[in-house]
Design brief:
- About 20% of the residues lie in helices and about 20% in strands.
- A hairpin with a 4-residue loop joins strand 2 and strand 3.
- It has two helices and four strands.
- It has one domain: Alpha-Beta Plaits, CATH 3.30.70.20.
- The chain has about 55 residues and is α+β, with helices and mostly antiparallel strands.
């Protein structure tokens, strides 16, 4: 199941830099994960400084 970024996101971009399939992009007020591209590896969640990424 793809990961999601919650409203706790502070738009730091740390997650996007870690995504091996480039599934994360800056959205309106927070970063967003493309569920069709996400491979559920969890690399982004490990890098989030505010724990805003969780399994969807």
């Amino acid at each position: 199941m793809a990961y999601i970024i919650t409203d706790a996101c502070v738009s730091c971009g740390a997650c996007a830099d870690q995504c091996p399939v480039s599934a994360i992009a800056e959205g309106d007020g927070k970063y967003e994960i493309n569920a069709d591209t996400c491979v559920s590896c969890g690399a982004c969640a490990d890098q989030c400084p505010v724990s805003a990424i969780e399994e969807g």
